Amino acid sequence: MTVPDDLRRAALEWRDDDPDPATRAEVDELLARDDGAGLEDRFGTRLEFGTAGLRGAEGAGPNRMNRALVRRATAGVARWLLDTGRAGDRPAVVGRDARHGSAAFAADAAAVLTGAGIPCVTFAGVVPTPVLAYAVLHVDACAGVMVTASHNPAADNGYKLYAGDGAQIVPPMDSEISARIDSVGPLADLALAAEAVGSVPEDVVDAYVAAAAGLSVAPRHRDVRLAYTALHGVGQAVALRVLEAAGFAAPAVVAEQAEPDPDFPTVAFPNPEEPGAMDRLVDLARDRDADLAIANDPDADRLAVAVPDPDAPGGWRALSGDEIGAALGDWRLEHDGTGPDRLVATTIVSSSLLGKLAAEHGVAYAETLTGFKWLARAGLARPDLHPVLAYEEALGCSVGRVVRDKDGMSAAMAFAELVAAEKAAGRTVQDRLDDVARRHGVHRTAQRSVRFDGPGALARSS
């Protein structure tokens, strides 16, 4: 297709403003071969900044994740922090995963924040998303930026923003920031850090590990064999430290998925919900006669588990997010405190079973819109209550009040403890789920994943 003049102008303007030679060259190549479809896909629309920040395929143009977009978005975030009085003299904290481009994106975000007059601290290397969320509170930051695409395909990256309360942003924060992003002028005019950006205090990860392990409610139960995979992500080192600090023996680890790898070579899609993603983990668990198989997604904010099941193909079955939430909810309500001043929460698309468990135990129950940006704020809205558990059906769990977002590592510790306690009583997780069903009826839910790619994907998905 012949490239329309307005599309060509947009591509040239972007190229001339882009600080990255790789994406500038990508634009030049598309223009040289008159690739109208490729240019339309990159410049005909743009990634919108919303409550989930930004996420999309990497490449040139406003509809891709790239250094120009990260600088522009961060300039808008900085302006918002300053305009609304949120910054003060509090720092911002920046973390990243191991995806392609994450190191450069994080460095750009830190340089723009610091250049705008907001002190910024960064982690020395990769970090799981829950640790970044924890760090916002630990260092009393005005905001946190996490460069990650979580469980998206290898071609993607993203930019996730936490407010100073340690929770993800919610409306109208997103529209306020988006308006300021739109008003950012030429990138060449942005002030960048003139000196080295600061480092996150060395004790942050140690403090997170201690706090996560401190969520234990039955420390005498540790006779359990575990298998674990990080799915080529950044969670393994911290997740294993949490388990060790809580008193568990080291799990068997899927060796070929243990180290961060941005290409995710052993899985078609690095999402533990996807068929086949946990096959190597289950094979290892079966080989080691494990009691529980644990998977974190690549940024370790989600928890997936599989358990032995003689009636399932291969003798193992992955639990759904609603089953994880029901089992953990029932267990934690029995053991995490007493009395009515406790809270459990889930979303409108999750099972209604948690509400019945809350009524059974006489505790507060909240049902929110989809996403942990809302679940976290259910707890913030009730500071008088102790948050026992928040979960969503998409494998997100938050136990206690350590992190104001989903956290697959502390949830892994909590679930391992549940399995160990049931094993000590001669029981299984399925026995607990059956008990819950006998008290409250069988609740069956199911998910279907539908992927939308290419131009107009967002419109076609709605």
| Global mean pLDDT | 95
Tally of individual helices: 16
The coarse silhouette is globular
Helix content: 25-40%
SSE-based structural type: alpha/beta
End-to-end CA span: 28 Å
Using only CA atoms, what is the Rg?
A: 23 Å
Uncertain stretches of 5 or more adjacent residues: none
- Percent of sequence in beta strands: 5-15%
By DSSP, the count of extended strands is: 15
For the sheet with most strands, the description reads:
6 strands, mixed
Q: Order of strands across the widest beta sheet?
A: 1-5-4-2-3-6
Describe the fold and architecture.
The chain has 462 residues and is an alpha/beta fold. It is 39% helix and 15% strand. It is built from 16 helices and 15 strands. The chain has helices at 5-17, 21-32, 36-43, 67-83, 102-115, 129-138, 173-182, 203-213, 236-245, 279-287, 321-335, 353-361, 372-380, 408-424, 429-440, 457-461; strands at residues 54-57, 92-96, 120-122, 143-147, 156-163, 198-199, 226-229, 252-253, 292-296, 303-308, 316-318, 342-347, 364-368, 386-392, 396-399. It has a six-stranded mixed β-sheet with strand order 1-5-4-2-3-6, sandwiched between helices. A five-stranded mixed β-sheet has the order 8-7-9-10-11. A four-stranded mixed β-sheet has the order 13-12-14-15. α1 (5-17) packs antiparallel against α2. The chain is globular and about 70 Å long. The two termini are 28 Å apart. The relative contact order is 0.11. The mean pLDDT is 95.
